[in-house]
Amino acid sequence: MLGKQEMYHTVMASKTEKFQLHVPSLEELRQVLENGLKQNFADAKVSVTDCPDLTQEPFTFPVKGLCGKPRITDVGGVPYVIPVVHPDKIYNMNAVSKEVELPGAFILGAGAVSSKTAGMNAELMPLVLTESEGKPAVNASYFSSINPEDGKCLQEKYSDKFHDCDFGLLANLYVCEGKPGKVLEVKASRRTGQDSLVTCMRKTMEQCYPDKSLALGGTFVIQKGKAKIHIMPRVFSPCPLQTEEDVNNWLKHFEVSAPLICQSVMVSRDPGLDLRVEHTHGFSHHGEGGHYYIDTTPDIVEYQGYFLPAEYIYRIDRPQETHKIGRD
Ligand SMILES: [Zn+2]
After folding, report:
1. How far apart are CA 228 and CA 263, in angstroms?
2. Is position 217 within any domain?
């Protein structure tokens, strides 16, 4: 049976696939998410509020808000990293903004650097106001690599080292006009369940809307406590990574401290686009950042975030050969 959503599933000339997502009212989602978060946190509150000015601390984004034609995109994928790397998979944020039909958009999310630009592999925390009508892009992204001197996490400002808007291999991105407006404010503290903030929100939507696909994108701050992250090594694995265990042995895991400013994209249910259904990268102002899994201090953790449901998902350069390894 083809539902209404499936009718909008079209394939573009460039092979990017576009899918219309279900968008409940913010008031409805507020209630759904608050109920779900209360199953996983001692305290949880979700409200509909004006987006705070994201140009201010701790966010320091190049735009004020998360609003205006919200959409998400899943670019490339884990199959371009494992079992063997595809170093030719290089993308560009300005091109992505056009591909998702919003040139000049603001883009945030989770991805990998272009190894051609960086001369190495690294985690990318994209925060890019893309170019528009002669105005150059503003790239406020961060990237994290493993410091060859001490094996620790080395987070740097992208624009301190590089001058393009390229990225590589994969990314999960939230794209919007960067305007102020109404958003969902999520506050949750003292984790009582096993799920991360993002997994809890995603599963809640999956359970409440079992036959629909919803997506949220946005930013949250881990205000107190610590979190488990990973960083991909600078050098790609010389031998193919065949299992989840191989991947976990290749990745470097760290425990990092709050405050961490995390950018997240989540989809309640994959409508058949071979998606990574959640992906979150975080940066800090104290030199730590990377791929977020979960807080490691449930008794004291405090989250505060801002999210908006996306209207469309665009699947860009979907891998032909796929697998489910390495999508945590
Ligand atoms: Zn990641």
Report:
1. 15
2. yes
